[in-house]
Amino acid sequence: NDNPGRRWGTPPFRIPLGGNTIMSLAKPPRRVQKMTRADAAWLHMEEPTNLMMITAVFLFDRPLDKQRFRDAIEERLLAHDRFRMQVVYPPLRMGRPSWKIDPHFNLDRHLDFRRLDPPGSEDQLMELVSQLMGTPLDRHLPLWHLSLVSGVGDGGAVIARLHHSIGDGFA
Questions:
Q1: Active-site residue, selected from the candidate residues 110, 145, 163, 164
Q2: Exposure of 21 by Cβ count < 10 A (0-12 exposed, 13-18 middle, 19+ buried)?
Q3: 2, 31, 6: which is closest to 16 by C-alpha?
Q4: Residue 124: burial class (beta carbons within 10 Å; 0-12, 13-18, 19+)
Q5: Of 10, 39, 57, 111, which residue is 20 to 30 A from 147 by alpha carbon distance?
Q6: Burial class of residue 77 (count of CB atoms within 10 Å of its CB; 0-12, 13-18, 19+)
Q7: Is 104 an annotated catalytic residue?
Q8: Cβ contact 166:144 at 8 Å
């Protein structure tokens, strides 16, 4: 809280996002949310050889600006609490897990910037997508990751990875 006269319980709510970045919200985030049974099932079905992850590839006819991309994610995606929440298991893992705001959330842990070597072919992009699809999301962080890829021909791409437990319960 950067205003000593303002208590956490009154608007605007300010959330640190890492570095010097702060996001302001009109209402407070819900601190803990019980996971739905369907979301918990997606979480428990995951195995190293069967990742429960949605992967999408978005192609653009020109390169994307890193800072504009980061700003858009911060403004639009992080306005939804779930994208700042991590999984919390009950004691002895008895019962359904919950979602809890990650007190150490840092947007930079969910974004990476990559460049394909020339010529930046579709085959090269699909090889990268394949590698990322085989890499599990870090269970200690909110369960999503975005890769901004430049050098895809004359354009760029975004590879979005989102755990089913977020995507299905959030939709």
A1: 164
A2: middle
A3: 2
A4: middle
A5: 39
A6: middle
A7: no
A8: yes
